[in-house]
């Protein structure tokens, strides 16, 4: 077997927000859906990975040529993991190593680092074929993949029932042959969380790699560093799926005065920041995987006002079919009262069709 540090991989693709540069021998993955991809002719692939957590374990997903072959819990500490074995060495295979768990600031030691890759002695790294575009996804539990594993009866808030690799976001990226980066945090919103905690909102963290993680492990790995937005070019598409927790939070707030106006103004402010880092992107704000009552109208108002004030007509909104309308059978439903795979797939199809129509 031959071992290669991350910066010795002549060909690789890194997906997701990170602080990596080629002076570093290791790669930290922060957000769910972040990934390392290599293209190979090899019989077997191993990865040296270190994971740290207290109680909320970290899951890893492995794909070969875009199809998931395994999903497993990472052990604490630094270990070698067999990623693939007995492959046809004459066949070109794209290997994707994906962090399947969202950044859990609830666990103070949460971190995941890939140190090295091993191939069999005859194994070769091949150039990674470039994709057609890049997409950034910004969201909550729907983008983090909560509910995509487990039976509908499962209601415990544990990483077992979360799978970022199976969301509408990754499905959409594959349909459009796109690179992706995702930032999804369960319970968080535009202005506040599901329980009206105003400190749990996504926009203040948008310009950093993963500043929702504040403890020393993650800070040392670069979580609080500024994000470069693809070297300043930004993404081709930005998909925002926020608002579900803002609606729940408004219901939980004791004093509701001024809250609708706060949502509208926050939508406008966030769009301004997103546009400043993605000058050429089509920005699409979506909602609807879980049924909402009044926040969509506030988002639409914010979008309309921003477009009128900025003359930016490259911003769109799209309502998606809800899990309530799609998940008729028990096997269709996700766990934790969240949408299952059927709803996520339908969302990916709808967004892809919408993008192609633009």
Give the secondary structure arrangement, pairings included:
Elements: E1 2-5, E2 13-15, E3 27-28, E4 35-41, E5 45-52, E6 59-64, E7 67-73, E8 77-84, E9 93-99, E10 111-119, E11 124-126, E12 133-139, H1 141-144, H2 168-175, E13 178-184, H3 216-220, E14 237-241, H4 244-252, H5 259-277, E15 282-287, H6 295-310, E16 315-319, H7 323-326, H8 341-357
Parallel strand pairs: 12-13, 12-14, 14-15, 15-16
Antiparallel strand pairs: 1-10, 2-4, 3-10, 4-9, 4-11, 5-8, 5-10, 6-7, 6-9
Protein model, in words:
The chain has eight helices and 16 strands. By secondary structure, the chain is α+β, with helices and mostly antiparallel strands. Strands 2, 4, 6, 7, 9 and 11 form a six-stranded antiparallel beta sheet that branches. Strands 1, 3, 5, 8 and 10 form a five-stranded antiparallel beta sheet that branches. Helix 6 (295-310) links the parallel strand 15 (282-287) and strand 16. The chain is globular and about 65 Å long. The chain starts with a strand and ends with a helix.
Strand content: 25-35%
Number of strands: 16
Succession of helices and strands:
EEEEEEEEEEEEHHEHEHHEHEHH
- Output the radius of gyration: 20 Å
Mean pLDDT, as a whole number? 97
Shape: globular
